[in-house]
């Protein structure tokens, strides 16, 4: 993998060196050897500011910590750190605390803590409040059912409204239709939304995002003799925070920014004085972000880092479940066929059997919507074009190309949207589209990170969804069966 990453790094470096600035001048870059020599000779400076000591071993009042408080605990203490959500879905795994029940318990504890502490709403007052639950465009029915039960039956909120994240983003941006690109920390999802409906055959989720860019930037800095040699973002929370801050401050895709940039880095270690280094960073700040367009730079060398919308898992308690209806329909057809065998010829019987086999084969492959190149990871621009090209109407395709909505905090870099537009234009030409392409990343001057939440807030006040709220009593009586009528999407 390291060899593949190094190859891709060299390709990206040569491509940047041969690129032009907006004024037509050729870009210039500081040689990596010169940057590495500067960083090796960087002399650390100690400041008088001291980072507070880490928390002492467990006591009853700190047996459970939430959010940024984990940065203040000693890694040597006997704590288990859990992340209930990972890669855009519940973090269900085979490790300790990885069961659905345990993950939901952690999620409930986090939500309760945040609502109590940050919003000032006591748990006993939850019954006075309504909740909008934003779920992924590619969702797991079991997870949705359990989260609804947690909100309405365990936390006892008054009612709940379900909405998919990409649909909420279009409401936040004020768009009737859009190709929504949500770049998060550990995942990137794409789908086309038309009139409040996320089109199932256009949905795809990539298992990489802003966090992978941070890891790539860490790797690139160490190649340039980053003076803080002890930096270990995968094991130390403070180092992870440091690298994320450096990524946000330094990384970009602006071809007009050339040469090395000088930056003062402050190292904060618990119980010790702040340590400062002055470093230089060159095109590494661009190459890390280019990983979204060449995933090999992110350490992704296969095509297994994606999820598409396949047939949803069957739920036995749902009488409207597609799998249930399909199986019962087949059993009914089987009984009818047995009755007709006595009066039909053998040829007709064989013909019907062949038809049933053909239907099964079509259903078995119906979820394979995306043409993923074998053995090669997919770049963001190619996936966006593939998603739009899944649509059947040329008119709708034109609307999607002219309304590509980028939300989330994973691609908030100077010049990133212009670069994305250029790459999409090149890929669109290969499918014979030469029309207008527009990238929207700050609709109504909103931060891309809050567009989806803004959309959910707008939805809450619409009269058109007043009949879609589900109360705790209704959920207790009907469970998921009520979602056939109340969900804003095809359940």
TrEMBL record:
InterPro entries: Actin, ATPase_NBD. Pfam families: Actin (PF00022). SMART domains: ACTIN. CDD domains: ASKHA_NBD_Arp8-like. PANTHER family: ACTIN. Belongs to the actin family. This is Uncharacterized protein.
């Amino acid at each position: 993998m390291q060899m593949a990453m190094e190859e891709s790094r060299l390709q990206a470096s040569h491509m940047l060196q041969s690129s032009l600035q907006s004024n037509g001048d050729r870009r210039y870059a500081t040689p990596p050897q010169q940057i590495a020599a500067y960083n090796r000779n960087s002399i650390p400076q100690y400041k008088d500011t001291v980072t507070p000591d880490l928390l002492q071993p467990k006591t009853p009042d700190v047996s459970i910590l939430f959010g940024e408080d984990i940065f203040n605990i000693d890694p040597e203490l006997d704590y288990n750190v859990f992340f209930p959500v990972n890669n855009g879905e519940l973090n269900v795994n085979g490790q300790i605390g990885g069961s659905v029940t345990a993950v939901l318990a952690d999620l409930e504890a986090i939500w309760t803590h945040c609502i109590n502490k940050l919003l000032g709403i006591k748990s006993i007052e939850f019954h006075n409040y309504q909740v909008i639950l934003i779920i992924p465009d590619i969702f797991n029915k079991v997870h949705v059912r359990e989260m609804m039960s947690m909100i309405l039956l365990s936390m006892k909120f008054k009612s709940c409204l379900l909405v998919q994240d990409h649909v909420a983003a279009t409401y936040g941006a004020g768009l009737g239709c859009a190709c929504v690109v949500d770049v998060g920390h550990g995942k990137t999802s794409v789908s086309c939304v038309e009139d409040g409906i996320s089109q199932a055959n256009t949905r795809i989720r990539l298992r990489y995002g802003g966090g992978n860019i941070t890891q790539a930037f860490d790797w690139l800095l160490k190649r340039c003799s980053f003076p803080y040699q002890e930096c270990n973002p995968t094991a130390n929370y403070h180092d992870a925070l440091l690298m994320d801050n450096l990524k946000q401050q330094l990384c970009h895709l602006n071809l007009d920014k050339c040469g090395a940039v000088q930056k003062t880095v402050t190292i904060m270690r618990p119980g010790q004085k702040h340590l400062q280094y002055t470093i230089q960073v060159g095109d590494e700040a661009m190459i890390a972000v280019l990983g979204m367009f060449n995933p090999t730079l992110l350490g992704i060398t296969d095509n297994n880092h994606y999820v598409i919308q396949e047939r949803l898992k069957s739920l036995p308690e749902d009488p409207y479940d597609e799998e249930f209806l399909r199986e019962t329909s087949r059993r009914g057809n089987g009984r009818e066929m047995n009755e007709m065998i006595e009066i039909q010829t053998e040829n007709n019987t064989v013909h019907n059997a062949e038809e049933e086999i053909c239907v099964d084969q079509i259903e078995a492959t119906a979820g394979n919507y995306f043409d993923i190149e074998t053995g090669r990871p997919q770049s963001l621009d190619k996936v966006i074009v593939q998603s739009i090209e899944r649509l059947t109407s040329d008119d709708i395709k034109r609307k999607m190309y002219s309304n590509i909505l980028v939300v989330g905090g994973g691609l908030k870099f100077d010049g990133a949207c212009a670069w994305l537009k250029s790459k999409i234009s090149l890929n669109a030409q290969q499918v014979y589209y030469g029309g207008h392409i527009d990238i929207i990343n700050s609709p109504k001057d909103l931060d891309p990170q809050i567009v989806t939440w803004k959309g959910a807030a707008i939805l809450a006040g619409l009269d058109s969804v007043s009949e879609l709220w589900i109360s705790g009593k209704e959920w207790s009586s009907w469970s998921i069966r009520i979602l056939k009528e109340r969900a804003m999407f095809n359940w």
